[in-house]
TrEMBL record:
This is Olfactory receptor. It is found in: Cell membrane; Membrane. SUPFAM superfamilies: Family A G protein-coupled receptor-like (SSF81321). Gene3D superfamilies: Rhodopsin 7-helix transmembrane proteins. The gene is LOC101655939. Belongs to the G-protein coupled receptor 1 family. The chain crosses the membrane at residues 29-53, 65-87, 107-125, 145-163, 210-230, 242-265, 277-295. Keywords: Cell membrane, G-protein coupled receptor, Membrane, Olfaction, Receptor, Sensory transduction, Transducer, Transmembrane, Transmembrane helix. It is a multi-pass membrane protein. Residues 45-292 form the G-protein coupled receptors family 1 profile domain. PROSITE patterns: G_PROTEIN_RECEP_F1_1 (PS00237), G_PROTEIN_RECEP_F1_2 (PS50262). CDD domains: 7tmA_OR4-like (cd15226). It holds the Pfam family 7tm_4. The keyword Transmembrane applies.
Length: 317
C-alpha cells in the first residue's frame, strides 16, 4: 500500500513517461509527419491572422477581428505548449518529461485554455450585440471594453489555472510514473500522486469539467437567442447570420466537447482521452484560421491590402 508508506524512505520520481499515441514504429513515423504538417499550418495560419489584424487599421478597429486576432494568438501558444514536444516524442524511444516540465505544461494549458474559453464567450456576446442591438454596437464595444475583455480573459485563465495548480504542485509522486497520454494533463497526473487526491479530483471536475459545460451551454443559448432574433426580423439576414454563427458553433463544439468529456469524467480512465486531447491542442487551433479566415472576404481583402502595401513600400526604396 504505497499510500500509507512512510514519507522518509520512499524515492520521489523526478520525471514522467508519456506513452504517446501508438506503440508501433510505422505509425509513430506517420504521426510525426502528420503532426509536423499540422503544426506548420497552425503557426502559419494563426500568425497570418495576428499579423493581418495587427497591421490592418480597418480590421484592428473592428471588434470582431480584434477579438479574433487575440483568439489566434491564444491558439498559437496553446498548441505550442503541447505539439512540438509531442512531435519530437514520436521519433524518440524514451518519451519522458521532467516533473517541472509536466507542471509547467499543465499550468500553461489551463491558463490559456481558460483564457480561450472566456474569449469565446466574449466573442459570442460581441455577435449578440452586433446582431440584436446594432444601433448601440459601436458605443458598447468601444476600445476600452475590448481591451478590458482581453485582459479579463487572461485574468480568468490565471485564476482558473492557479486554483488547481497550487494544490497540484505540492503533491508527492513516488511512482508509477507512466502517463497514457501525449502530454501532461491534470486527471492522469493526479492519479499518479501517492497521496489521497479525492478532494483535488472533485475540484478539477468542478473547476474544469463543470466550468466547460456551463460555458458551452451558455454559448449555445446565446447563439440560439441570436438566431431567433434574426429570424423574427427576417430581412434576409438569416442566411448571413447562419453562416457566421455556424463557424462559431463548430469551433466552440470542437473545443468544448473534448474538454467536457475529459474533465467531467476525469477519473474513469477512458483511453479515448488522449485522442480527444488532440482535438483541443491541434485540431481547434488548426481549424480556427480555416473557418474564420479562408471563407471570409473581409479578411482576404485585408491580406491583399497588406501585401500591396508591402510590395509598394519595397518598390519605392
Ligand atoms: C489583442 O489585444 C491587445 C490588448 O487588448 C491588443 O493591443 C492587440 O492588438 C490584440 N491583438 C490582435 C492581434 O488583435
Amino acid at each position: 500500500m504505497p499510500k500509507l508508506m512512510d514519507t522518509t524512505n520512499r524515492t520521489m520520481i523526478s520525471e514522467f513517461v508519456l506513452l504517446g499515441l501508438s506503440s508501433t514504429w510505422e505509425l509513430e513515423v506517420f504521426f510525426f509527419f502528420i503532426f509536423l504538417l499540422a503544426y506548420a499550418a497552425i503557426v502559419a495560419g494563426n500568425l497570418l491572422i495576428v499579423v493581418t489584424v495587427t497591421f490592418d487599421s480597418h480590421l484592428h478597429s473592428t471588434p470582431m477581428y480584434f477579438l479574433l486576432g487575440n483568439l489566434s494568438f491564444l491558439d498559437l501558444i496553446i498548441s505550442t505548449i503541447t505539439t512540438p514536444k509531442m512531435i519530437t516524442d514520436f521519433l524518440s524511444e524514451k518519451k519522458t518529461i521532467s516533473l517541472w516540465g509536466c507542471m509547467a505544461q499543465m499550468f500553461f494549458l489551463h491558463f490559456l485554455g481558460g483564457g480561450e474559453m472566456t474569449l469565446l464567450i466574449v466573442m459570442a456576446v460581441d455577435r449578440y450585440i452586433a446582431i440584436c442591438k446594432p444601433l448601440h454596437y459601436t458605443t458598447i464595444m468601444n476600445r476600452r471594453v475590448l481591451t478590458g475583455s482581453v485582459l479579463l480573459s487572461w485574468g480568468v485563465g490565471f485564476v482558473h489555472t492557479m486554483s488547481q495548480m497550487v494544490f497540484t504542485i505540492t503533491l508527492p509522486f513516488c511512482g508509477p510514473n507512466v502517463i497514457d497520454n501525449i502530454f501532461c494533463d491534470l486527471p492522469l497526473v493526479l492519479k499518479l500522486a501517492c497521496t489521497e487526491t479525492y478532494v483535488l479530483e472533485l475540484l478539477v471536475i468542478a473547476d474544469s469539467g463543470l466550468l466547460s459545460f456551463v460555458c458551452f451551454v451558455l454559448l449555445l443559448i446565446s447563439y440560439t437567442v441570436i438566431l431567433v432574433t434574426v429570424r423574427q426580423r427576417s430581412s434576409g439576414g438569416l442566411s448571413k447570420a447562419l453562416s457566421t454563427l455556424s463557424a462559431h458553433i463548430t469551433v466552440v463544439t470542437l473545443f468544448f466537447g473534448p474538454c467536457i468529456f475529459i474533465y467531467a469524467w476525469p477519473f474513469s480512465s477512458f483511453s479515448v482521452d488522449k485522442f480527444l486531447s488532440v482535438f483541443y491542442s491541434v485540431i481547434t487551433p488548426l481549424l480556427n484560421p480555416i473557418i474564420y479566415t479562408l471563407r471570409n472576404q473581409e479578411m482576404k481583402s485585408a491580406m491583399n491590402r497588406l501585401r500591396k502595401q508591402h510590395v509598394s513600400s519595397r518598390l519605392s526604396l
